[in-house]
Amino acid sequence: MLNEFSLIEQYFLNNKKQRPDSIVGIGDDGAVTRVQPNHDLVTVTDTMVNGVHFDESTPPRAIGHKIVAVNLSDLAAMGAEPCWISLALTLPDADETWLSEFAAGLHEICQYYDCTLIGGDTTRGPLTVTVTAQGQVPAGEAITRSGAKPGDWLYVSGPLGDAGLGLDMTQQADMATGPHLQRLVERLYYPHPRVALGQTLRNVAGACIDISDGLLADLQHLLSSSGVAADIELDKIPLSLAMTETLSQDAAYKKALTAGDDYELCFTVEEHNRGRLETLTAHLKNKPICIGRITQLREPAIQFKLHGEVYELPLEYQGYNHFNNSVTAKD
Ligand SMILES: [Mg+2]
Fold this sequence. Notes:
33% of the residues lie in helices and 25% in strands. The chain is an alpha+beta fold. The chain has two domains: 4-138, CATH 3.30.1330.10; 153-318, PurM-like C-terminal domain (Phosphoribosyl-aminoimidazole Synthetase, Chain A, domain 2, Alpha-Beta Complex). The protein has helices spanning 4-12, 60-77, 96-112, 162-171, 181-189, 195-200, 215-226, 241-246, 249-258, 274-280, 315-318; strands spanning 22-24, 32-33, 39-49, 81-91, 116-124, 128-138, 153-156, 205-210, 229-233, 265-269, 289-295, 302-306, 309-311. It starts with a helix and ends in a 13-residue tail after the last helix. It contains eleven helices and 13 strands. A seven-stranded mixed sheet has the order 8-10-7-11-9-12-13. The site of magnesium ion has 4 residues, from helix 2.
């Protein structure tokens, strides 16, 4: 096995372009970064464990991409510009093919978002990858989960459920996969965090969260942080063509509400900011979709309407528990 130093040397002490605000990077006891004046630093961490968040069939390149993407998605939800990441890597052995593919996936997404890898650690053990990402936001402008108020409109940033459907297709050999397989598996393996949209939502969204565990689970977090409830119009929830052509309507809505790993944003907007949101997002291919409205706190916190009528969700939706629902469940 390569020793720790040569592992880092070979795959992570990269000669890629570094951000000028990374003053001291990999190779010293600590990294030194320079935060812009009048900005706040936002720090997030996510771990992915073999057998829990991915399995042996997941390409190492996808693992490298995704561990960065899920962190950048959390930064996006806070309205932050991603700047720096550090990596803690636990490996059962130094498989060089695995490492080079993993590093390629990680470097690609870092380069794309101008995010510099500034440090890390490698240890021997069961395969586990942890990334801490840091981003900046103008002082006082970070978006939190707790700013939703009754009367605000509720939005999601794009179609939901595709990654979950892609996961089913990779795991269920008997499932009819159809022409959309490749696109859905891409959504699962190579999610695109909504980095630009998150920054656009500063001073526009009252509250925001990224959808990592499914709309119902993540919206619950936003509602309880804000002390409010929500009405959702089921038929407004955006579904991709791949979704509607693969599943029945009921199964598609269930997937969109409960499946994780989409990394879209869910956010609230006050009435007087709706036009501003529309103007700021007019150029986007996937425009944010209004799916409901925030109400005063009540039980249950989420109520549904279908074509304007109150709609009781089947019980199994509400019993959803992300800890035992999918191999990609994450908290
Ligand atoms: Mg999150």
